[in-house]
Write a structure and sequence with these properties.
Triger factor/SurA peptide-binding fold; 2 domains; 48% helix; alpha+beta; three-stranded antiparallel β-sheet
Amino acid sequence: MIRLGRRAAVLAAAGMLAAVSVTGCSGSIDTDEVVATVGDEEITLGVANFYARMMQGQYETYYAQMMGTTGDAMWTQEVSDGVTMEQSMKDSVMTTLENMYVISQHASEYDVSLTDEEKVAIEEAAQQFDADNTDEAKETVSGYRQDIEKYLELATIQNKMIPKMQEGIDENVTDEEAAQKSMQYVFLSYTTTDDDGNSADLSDDEKAALMTNAQSLVDRVRAGEDMETVATELGMTVNTATFDSESTSPNSDLIAAADALANEGDITDPVETDNGIYIGRLTSLLDREATDQEKENIISQRQQDQYDSLLQEWKDAIDITVNDKVWDKVDFVDTGVSITTSQEAENSDGASADDGAASADGSDTSGESAE
């Protein structure tokens, strides 16, 4: 029975572990094998497998369910030409691990290190994980102290390094740079849906009638009538949106037409698209709330850009290699992992788990819970 104690939750970087439980097929691997090298430092298969299995569990439990599929079917789906979801996930896992190792190698340059409290929290989380799990379960997810501790150390250091790596960016953003306009708009769809959920395209005559109504709305608003009042009378729904010239939602053609309006209160001509007709009315040339939010977005993007640039610079300065033959031993299709709640764990074996529980039963569940 795999359990993760609340003590691990004191680490922001370990949030995933504090609430995660896994179930899966048992499988033995040499956790000391080197799966990759980052400069002069080695990534063991144990650390890589542990992180990969945590991510696998989240995806099989939540995403597969939302997609209406099973774990093994999900991992074999192609996400791009010749690349399965399993390959994509494993590439993402390896890149994340490489980044964490690189960042930890530069931590001393920023006077970043683990505090005594963090070291204790990591040790206690690893000890509890180790003590509460069977050997069979730990073989499946590489849930051994040295692997868990190494992952938590790396993740905690990365968490502390992020703000350090983002320091010094220009946080001055003018209204002009961040300016967001606002508008009211209606959309008249070329598709109808009946009570049973069946959809049908409008005929040419119906589309022409829709355009007539759209033009009527435009003409009456330009004559001084209230847009919402007229729209309600014509059976239309008025929506609101904030935007700038680079926005694409709700529709890029509507955005271009609305952005070209010179004065607040101006309304566009009917904007015909493949899916229907849009009409927009400019309500503000500078939406204060949206503009202030965009300023925050711009600052956040600058921080992210600096972080990414610095990380890439560090990675370019060293050799990073992956041993594909070793990494291939981590297989999501044949070894299923799923998350169970603490209540499910209690129901399955009578044991109580504060933050969740998991088991590995040795059968090929391929993402199904082995409880």
